[in-house]
């Protein structure tokens, strides 16, 4: 990655991501752009499920002659997944505190 390129981080609101030290480090390194998931969200789980599917179907046993071929295979997978497997995900949270069971 070129030194001038921005890096986007998607993180939950865990205390390790929002601590004073973490915020200070990120402020000192402006190329890192943090995007927090909503509190009480399972959005990040959906992303993890997608990458797990990508890994199982394409990456785990894949052999790629170049980075370009790998990128092409991932692009092909994403387009096919969008057409055949992707389902809308509707997340809601009404603000009621979650209870441990």
TrEMBL record:
Q: What residue stretches are annotated with the Tc1-like transposase DDE domain?
A: 6-70
Q: What is the lineage of its organism?
A: Bacteria, Bacillati, Actinomycetota, Actinomycetes, Kitasatosporales
Q: What is this protein called?
A: Transposase
Matching Pfam families, A to Z?
DDE_3
According to its UniProt entry, this protein's organism is Streptomyces flavidovirens
Looking up InterPro entries in the UniProt record yields: RNaseH-like_sf, RNaseH_sf, Tc1-like_DDE_dom
